[in-house]
Amino acid sequence: MEKTHDSILLVYSPVITPRLEYSFELIFKTILGIELNFTVKSEEFLQSALPKINYSPTNLSSGLFLKPHSLLFEKNIDIHEIEMVEYRQMQLFFPTSEDSFLPFDPFACAFYIVSRFEEYLSEATDEHERFTDSENILVRHGLYQKPIVDMMAYWVADQISGQFPHFNIHKRTFQFITSIDIDNAWAFKNKSPFVSFGAILKAVTNSRWDELKQRMVVFLGLQKDPYDTYKFILETYKGLLHHVIFFFLIGNRDQYDKNISYKNKRFRQLITDLASVCEVGIHPSYASNSKLWLFETEKDRLEDIIQKPVTKSRQHFLKLKLPQTYQQLIKLGISEDYTMGFASLAGFRAGTCTAFYFFDLSRNRRTDLLIHPFQVMDVTLKNYLQMAPEDAWQLIEELMLEVKKVNGTFTSLWHNESLRDSGQWLGWRKVFEQILETGLKYSNEQS
Fold first, then answer.
1. 417 inside domain
2. Average pLDDT of the chain, as a whole number
3. Are residues 371 and 424 in the same domain?
């Protein structure tokens, strides 16, 4: 898209810091598609005819003025007292002055949310040493089911257009991604004799006769393995496989890592087959989260199987510790990560439905690691929220509509085993199909 005079914004601030530059580029370049010019010279700002924002303590009576919070001018990761302000019947934070064009600082607010500032400071973790969802500032203030950062970007754009009527933003379109984690490629097939014998013994000990019966009919070839849902996935997305990405767990067998051995020929063939038609990434094992060498080994295994570099990942169990996890991914050549989402809730953990670059607060700089946030996970809906498929779809539909309003990207997280349409997952295939149907509908609509 060719940039015109009116799709360039001039930003004045006495100091241009890495945080300030990142936040403004997130709002304007990434979300609104606007080019930015920065200046530290008030004279240049006053003389410019461009649409412009004065982000400084002093109102120059030219362009739009917003008195900034101190956050974007700092280097350290300090605790901030979060002062709330009501805007559009929502509780936002970092109040500004009466002569500012908004009653809160959207640039500091967006930076705090997207950088996951609070996750560096919190010591509250769950049983898997993950940041506790209930501690998220958006959860505490009832904003976690809205893409609030994207909304703020459009509010800012509206304010600029009010003063500069020819100011134009890039019109983006609704997108959707269906991501699928392969934690356990098959329930019964292709396991080692030792693992299969142990599972049979455990089932007998606990009188799980239905499981034993199902295992037997699968072994005899009378019924498909219940986790073998790959044909269903591929047929459902026939002609639309660019919307699908698979993440494979190929770590060593451990307490939380139960997949088939990466040496298994059928497992390797499955990965190769799916990689030939879809994007694939690595699902780093639970154990690798604290062992960089182990993650490197697993990445090498997957690259050997698909015969090309692995650049995408999602952490198993969503184990994400900032900034260490992302620093490790960067070190080993991962350029895109899909871990950013809630484990126990559905919504926007980082307040956005737009892919964004990770800002490493510990080093005070933007990185080249692109973060793809997701909004819903199958296990969250069924196990954490105890939802029936019909209720889950109603929540998903509401979240998809919120994403549609800002023309962002709706990303869902599934597992091959949750699509078996039997047992505890009966009825969930319909939800999977409804996401596709609605995603296509929204993609084809002009907002």
1. yes
2. 92
3. yes
Judge whether 401 and 438 are in contact, CB under 8 Å: no
Question: Does residue 87 sit in the same domain as residue 179?
Answer: no
Q: In this structure, are 27 and 153 located in the same domain?
A: yes
Angle value at C-alpha 52, between 48 and 53, nearest 5 degrees? 130
Residue reference for tokens 């019947």? 89
pLDDT exceeds cutoff 50 at 265: yes
Give the pLDDT confidence of 389-444 residue by residue, as tens digits: 999 999 999 999 999 999 999 999 999 999 999 889 999 999 999 999 999 999 99
pTM assigned to the model: 0.93
C-alpha–C-alpha distance, residues 324 and 330, integer Å: 10
- Say whether both 376 and 428 belong to one domain: yes
Domain that holds residue 197: 192-219
For the segment 113-127, the average pLDDT, to the nearest whole number, is 93
371 & 253 share domain? yes
Helices (H), 223-291: 230-236, 265-275
Contact status, residue 341 vs residue 412, Cβ threshold 8 Å: no
DSSP 404-420: HHTT-EEEEEEEGGGGS
